[in-house]
Amino acid sequence: MPLASYACIPSESRGRLHDEGRSSTGQVTRGPRDDFQRDRDRIIHSISFRRLRHKTQVFVSPDGDHFRVRLTHSLEVAQIGRTIARALGLNEDLTEALCLAHDIGHPPFGHAGEDALEEALAGYGGFDHNAQTIRTLARLERPYPRWNGLNLTWETLEGLAKHNGPVADAPWALAEADREFRLELNSWPSLEAQIAAVADDIAYDNHDIDDGIRAGLLTIDQLLELPFILERWDEICENFPDVPQERLIPELVRDQIGLMVNDVIQTTRERIAQSGIVSVDDVRAAGVMIGGFSEDMARKERALKGFMYANLYNHPEQLNAAEKARLVVSDLIEAYSADPALMPADWSSGLPGEQPHRMRHIADFLAGMTDRYAANCHARIFGKVDA
Q1: CA–CA separation, 147 vs 277, rounded Å?
Q2: pTM for this predicted structure
Q3: Has residue 266 been placed in a domain?
Q4: What is the pLDDT of residue 236?
Q5: What is the number of structural domains in the chain?
Q6: What is the pLDDT of residue 22?
Q7: Given phi > 0 = left and psi -120 to 50 = alpha, else beta, which region is 291?
Q8: What is the mean pLDDT of residues 87-93?
Q9: What is the distance of C-alpha 64 from the center of its chain?
Q10: How far apart are CA 197 and CA 292, in angstroms?
């Protein structure tokens, strides 16, 4: 399927920070892949992407193998993102790259770990998981001999930096990346980035229902308090009257995802036509988000999100686990600050001598940890913590 005129075209990319035209022997090394395909593949092959398999999505270090983690969530976001991008004539490879990479900056234990890092770095520019994604991919990953980072294209970095819209007050890690490779933080991102953002919402809104019920923290009766969920549930039960209710929950999740995806496709097409958008520059200059839900679906999605916060994310069991996890990260920050030799040699040997660089270096180490590794490090230093 040919790309739409408002899609990002790899041959028209603004390029990479470091020129990669030829190898040290002078051989052209581009191969059959275009620049956005190469970005996607670099992300998939990165250490930080592999670590997502042991990072919290909703449940801290879940015991069951059937619960989602950051890695499986990112794969599900990529599937939804590619579906929408294909229907709209957008660049699927760029969309997929953004979906796969969007959570790489999350520290161990999800938002609990982020809260601990934000508190510790309050006097040093703070901590933001989205900005940490950029820092990780542009600086901390080091698979190449002549530069740090994955050397991703401008379009990929721009999409990761501002997929939720223009950034007025950039966190320090994002401001650092912007100084090195200007990302035009005051403009809107490409449609590929906008679709990656809404695909993330669709994935976690609905898949967290599945995990919440599986964990016994949500019930279908609670969900039916939402009128639009009740409407879909009644129709599903009518279509499958002889099937036990627990077998119908995946059908509800699929149905909700399908409704949201179709709404985004239709709404985005309408906004493109109404705004007269014919190029990616028009998208960036539109002044509003073009890719997203209709007003009606956005209202329903906000209600669902509010329900999930009230009944799942802020469930007493979740809050208790999150507080224990936050203390693990806080303890490790204090321990490594007091005695950097507790970190592995390759991290302690590179510790800067002055603040804020010293604290940021420790935060980089901690943010890259998986849940399991953080718990093991804490156990080695402080002894076992309560489960």
Answers
A1: 38
A2: 0.94
A3: yes
A4: 96
A5: 1
A6: 52
A7: beta
A8: 98
A9: 22
A10: 9
- What is the C-alpha to C-alpha distance for residues 387 and 376, in angstroms, rounded to an integer? 13
What pLDDT, in 10s, does the model give residues 332-369? 999 999 999 999 999 999 899 888 999 999 999 999 99
129 vs 187, 239, 256, 270, 356, CA distance in Å?
A: 21, 43, 28, 33, 18
Q: How far apart are CA 123 and CA 132, in angstroms?
A: 17
Question: Do residues 85 and 328 touch, judged by C-beta distance below 8 A?
Answer: no
In a domain, 260, yes or no: yes
Write out the residue range of the structural domain in which residue 244 sits.
Answer: 44-317
User: What separation in angstroms does the CA of 128 have from each of 9, 119, 121, 131, 176?
Assistant: 30, 11, 10, 5, 13
CA distance linking residue 198 with residue 81, whole number of Å: 8
State which H helix or E strand residue 203 sits in: helix 191-214
How many helices and strands (H and E) does the chain possess? 18, 0
In a domain, 352, yes or no: no
Q: What pLDDT score was predicted for residue 26?
A: 43
* Lowest mean pLDDT, pick from 8-22, 194-208, 218-232, 292-306: 8-22
Cis omega (within 30 of 0) on the bond before 189?
no
Residues 90 and 4 sit within 8 Å (Cβ to Cβ): yes
Going by C-alpha positions, the residue among 129, 115, 267, 250 that lies closest to residue 198 is: 267
Comparing CA positions, the residue from 69, 49, 50 lying closest to residue 58 is: 69
Per the listing, tokens 């998981």 go with 129
CATH of the domain at 217: 1.10.3210.10
Q: What is the pLDDT of residue 57?
A: 73
Summarised one tens digit per residue, pLDDT across range 199-251 is: 999 999 998 898 899 889 999 999 999 999 999 999 999 999 999 998 999 99
In a domain, 331, yes or no: no
Contact 98, 156 (CB under 8 A): yes
Query: Tens of pLDDT along 136-186?
Result: 999 999 999 999 999 999 999 999 999 999 999 999 999 999 999 999 999
Distances (CA, A) of 279 to 3, 31, 93, 113: 11, 28, 18, 40
